[in-house]
Design a protein that fits this description.
Elements: H1 2-15, H2 18-24, H3 30-43, E1 52-55, H4 61-66, E2 74-78, H5 81-91, E3 97-100, E4 113-118, H6 127-140, E5 141-151, H7 160-168, H8 182-190, E6 194-200, E7 207-208, E8 213-214, E9 220-221, E10 224-225, E11 230-236
Parallel strand pairs: 1-2, 1-4, 2-3, 4-5
Antiparallel strand pairs: 5-11, 6-11, 7-10, 8-9
Helix pairs in contact: 1-2
Length: 237
């Protein structure tokens, strides 16, 4: 998987100027979705002095938006060093850490973080790998801390196009796309020290926005926003 992503980032770098390549490497909507991702965390209690761990931080979409709000520590991990380098540059927070992901481990001590998020991460992992990452999140979280992750599900009609594109690319070089049923989430929760706080379908706006957000096509979203992917919020007990 690491080689696939590195090849994908290099291809984009050959076709676009650097900033645009870094945005496209994580799917676009860089500024808008960064703000919405941040507001999901704020919606469920993120405080300015909290410690956030951003697994799959990519080129800094969430980190850039968080830099305007978060005074506390931040750890972003990813498997592609070029993305981490760019994130580190645009965020400009020497007190924040950006590190290469060591397998399915989170490089932090137990009971340290207030929030661990996985935006567009479990969408590209096997279920077993996602569960291991959730175990790691529970290890590094303080009791009462939050896990937030986005996911694809067959129950959302708009997600079907991702499935058909993946079918068409069987044997190709694009990253794996994985769907997660809500029954799987509840089964995982039964075997982890977590409770399910909320699950939101990706097809309905549900994120209170404190400011209007402008999408790449110049559409302005205000009031409530969403990421397109569904969102799950878990609390560490």
């Amino acid at each position: 998987m690491k080689a696939t992503y590195e090849r994908h980032v290099k291809t984009l770098g050959d076709r676009h100027e650097r900033a645009r390549a870094m945005e496209l490497a994580i799917g676009g909507q860089f500024t808008a979705f960064g703000i919405i991702e941040r507001e999901i965390l704020v919606q469920y209690g993120l405080r300015p002095d909290d410690f956030v761990i951003d697994v799959g931080c990519g080129s800094g979409r969430l980190a850039k938006a968080l830099a305007e709000y978060l005074r506390g520590p931040y750890l972003g991990i990813d498997i592609v060093p070029d993305l981490l380098d760019y994130a580190r540059e645009i965020v400009g927070r020497p007190d924040w850490r950006f590190e290469v992901a060591p397998g399915l481990q989170i490089p932090e001590r137990p009971n340290a973080a207030d929030v661990v998020c996985f935006y567009s991460v479990f969408t590209h992992l096997l279920h077993e790998q996602s569960f291991v990452y959730l175990q790691e999140a529970c290890r590094v979280l303080k009791p009462g801390g939050l896990i937030v992750f986005s996911f694809l599900e067959f129950a959302i009609p708009s997600h079907w196009s991702v499935f058909t594109a993946t079918v068409a690319d069987i044997g190709g070089q694009h990253p794996l796309n994985v769907f997660i049923g809500r029954d799987a989430i509840h089964a995982w929760a039964e075997h982890l020290p977590v409770t399910v706080v909320a699950i939101h379908g990706g097809d309905k706006p549900h994120v209170p926005l404190r400011e209007p957000v402008t999408l790449d096509d110049d559409t302005v979203v205000s009031g409530l926003g969403n990421l397109g992917q569904s969102i799950c919020v878990l609390r560490r007990v």
